[in-house]
Amino acid sequence: QDCFVCGENGASITCQEMGCERSFHFPCAMEGSCITQFVEPYRSYCWEHRPEQLVEAVSESTNCLISMDPVEDRVSYGTMAYPACKHAWFHQGCIQEQARQVGTSCFQCPLCHDQQLFVKNMLIMGIRIPSRPPVWENLDLYAPLLERHSHCDASECLCPLGREWREAVSEGTWQLLLCSSCASEGIHWICAGLDTSTASWECGSCAGPSTGERE
To answer: Which residue ranges traverse the bilayer (predicted)?
Structure first.
């Protein structure tokens, strides 16, 4: 099948309207203003036969709840609304990006916060909602924040095993002390010239020129 949007062959999606022979590639759907529904029976429609939202006309002053930019004065492929919440208007691209960011667990109407009916309506209107938690709950993104500083920052480290070595006991010659203020620098007790009974240490940046324990 040839895609009616880009003209290339290999189009695997055909409009479900009886008698319509328009086919398109899934990536071409947005450019061609087509809709693929993400609920059973997973129908797809071309720009001419796609479902329309039954929402009252919007005033000229209405803005997208997400981007705060003006929307069209009526529902269209690019301007969407939530019929159960007459004041919730948004751009199709904005609500799709929100769905991509928050996933199924947090996707809801940006105004009334209804979730169940809102999700169903958006799926029918072609908004794809990833089945996952929000992207900000991906712990891999924040893994560096959970890492503890693990090497000696002394100008001359005296440890024969190198800056990365530290004893795994609470007290010891090569126990690594982290800065008690920022924890972003560390030093071996001996490299700092401190007694092993010293419980805290501050790096040069936090201690300043005349206060705190310094290297």
So the answer is: none
Q: How many CA atoms lie within 13 A of 81 on its CB side?
A: 23
Fold of 53-147: Herpes Virus-1 (3.30.40)
Q: Where are the CATH 3.30.40.10 domain residues in the chain?
A: 148-202
Name the nearest CA neighbour of 131 among 99, 98, 104.
104
| pLDDT one-digit tens code per residue, 36-94 | 999 889 999 999 999 888 776 666 668 899 999 988 888 888 999 888 877 789 999 99
Query: Looking at the whole model, is its pTM more than 0.70?
Result: no
Among residues 149, 160, 169, 148, the alpha carbon closest in space to that of 191 is found at 160
d(CA 63, CA 112): 16
Third-level CATH fold of 148-202? Herpes Virus-1 (3.30.40)
